[in-house]
Every structure is written in C-alpha cells, then in structure tokens.
Amino acid sequence: MVKRCAFALLVLVLAAGMLLTGHEAAAEEPWAEIEGESFDFIVGYDAGGSHDITARHMAEGLTELGIEVDVTNMPGGDATEAGYHVADSDPEENIVFWAHPPAQLFDPATRDVGYDFEDFDPVATMGSPTFVFAALVEQPFASYDELVEHIEENPGQTVVGGQAMNHPMHYAFEMLLPSDELDYSYVNLGGGADVQANLAGGHVQAGHLSLAAALPLYEDDELEILVHTSEMAETVDAIPEVPHMRDVGVDYAEPHSLSALAPEGIDEDVREALNAAIREVIESEDFQEDMDEMGVVAVPHTIEETESYFDELVEDVLPDYEAWLEEQN
Fold this sequence. Notes:
With 329 residues, the chain is an alpha/beta fold. The protein has two domains: 35-128 and 255-328, 3-Layer(aba) Sandwich (D-Maltodextrin-Binding Protein, domain 2); 131-228, D-Maltodextrin-Binding Protein, domain 2. Helix content is 45%, strand content 19%. The protein is built from eleven helices and eleven strands. The strands form two sheets. Strands 2-1-3-10-4-11 form a six-stranded mixed β-sheet, with helices on both faces. The chain has a five-stranded mixed β-sheet with strand order 7-6-8-5-9, sandwiched between helices. Helix 2 links the parallel strand 1 (38-43) and strand 2. It is globular and about 60 Å long.
C-alpha cells in the first residue's frame, strides 16, 4: 500500500513537473502559434540593398525559430509596387511588406499609389539603417559647417547628389541644405551605390547615402562623413565621432526605420506571434553584430510601440513634409 502511494505521488510530481515545464516553454516561446508556418517577406528594392539584406538576416533568424521565410524582391515605384501587392493580398496568406516609411506612409499620403497606410496592420519595427552626408577627403570642406560656408562663398558651383526627387529622402537633404537659402545644384541619383560611385568619381562634391554604402570608402580614409541622420540613435557605434544632424543645429531625424506590415485583417494571434519572433531575432547577439557592421541601429518594437512610431510620424513629420512637397510642385 505504501509503495503504491509512493508511486502515485511520484507520478503526480512528475506530471506536475512536466506541466510546469510546458508552461515555461510556452512562456519562453510566444511565437509558438506560427512555428512550422511559412511567410513571404516582400521587399520593394533589388537584392543587395539595406532593405534586402536586413530582410534576409531577419529571415535567417526566424528560420532558426522554426518559422520559414521566403524573401521576394519586387522593385518598382520606390517600393510602392511591393506595397500595393501586399495591401491587395489576403491577410491569411502570411505575407508581409518589409519597407520604410516613405513607401509605407509618405507616398500613399501624398500621391496615388493604389493603397493607403490604413490598408496595413503594423506588425513590428526593427530599427533603422543609418544615412549620412559625406564628401571625399580631397574636398575643401571636412564638416557640415565648412560645407555650408563653401556653398555660400561659391554660389552655384557646388554639386551634391541624393537618391530621390520630391521624396522624403530629398526632404532630409533639404533640411540640411535648404535650397531657398543656399545656391547649389542637386542631382537625383539612382541609389546609394550610385551616390558612392559619383562621389568616388568626383562627379558630385557631397552626397546623401546609407552608411553601409559609405563605409568602404570611409574605412579606406577616402571619404569624410559630415553628419548622420539616424532617428534611432544620436551616436552610431560604427561612426561614434560623427555628429547627428541635430548636433549641427538641424532639428530633424530621417524616418527610415524598416518595418513589417501585414495586410489589414491579419489574425491577431498570428500578428502577436510574428512580432514576438521578430523581437527575439533583433535581440540576438548575432543579429546585433550583423546590423552593427551595416550601420543599422536595431531596436525591437512591440506592436503598440510600432503603432506609436507611425502615429508620431503622422502627427509630427507628415504635415511639414506635405507642405514642403506642395511648394516643390
């Protein structure tokens, strides 16, 4: 009798332990809802850029958590073709738009791209690539103030290169070098690699490009980085000595955070699970190291924090951008 009671007690203890372990596992793995499922991450630019590379690093991390991710490049319309494709998709298809605010919010708010920001449910924000203003070391200026002074002393003779026209990236350029106050020539180039090539070739004297594109020349002491425009950090680890644009008197930060947006109506449990998984990847040491090497400031956001981020853009940045855009047109 005593042996039977002892055996029964042992079974109860083991069962309780297994139950506790199961609860702990569930608590440790809030993405369990989507383990074994497959997601499509749609990137609106060609392979090799910051959008594509970050998406693929994220896909690798999610795969290690048991969530399969297929990254598809769908360039066109400054990523708005990819945005339209996702917005028009069935929310049950496990499809995500991996992009930045210009394609997710600013373009839909200011021109007809076939969708609105409200056509998405924000899932997560992972942080932002760092963008910089840079010049070759041989130029007669080595700081932002010296660049402004050079333009003022040589009106109409300075050529600078950017990545867009009448676009949030052009707007960031205007915040630093207001064309109604400074006389210079602005050249719209195709992308960061084009800006880098034109800087290296001496075709433009200063340029706006991603830190990832600038780092090779910077590390070879061929490029001077004048300021950075990160919205996530005042100091960027890869370039700690470079001032933020706020440090040179320009009260602005470039909204370039990469976010995952699903079509409106995604299952809320799936949305929560995917957000938890994305945050788990962002917080991993490997992902942080990979992002640091690219000059990406990776900061995990909950769904609520992601929604608040976009709310702040709508309230604080979009009205001024719309007013500037109207002046340009």
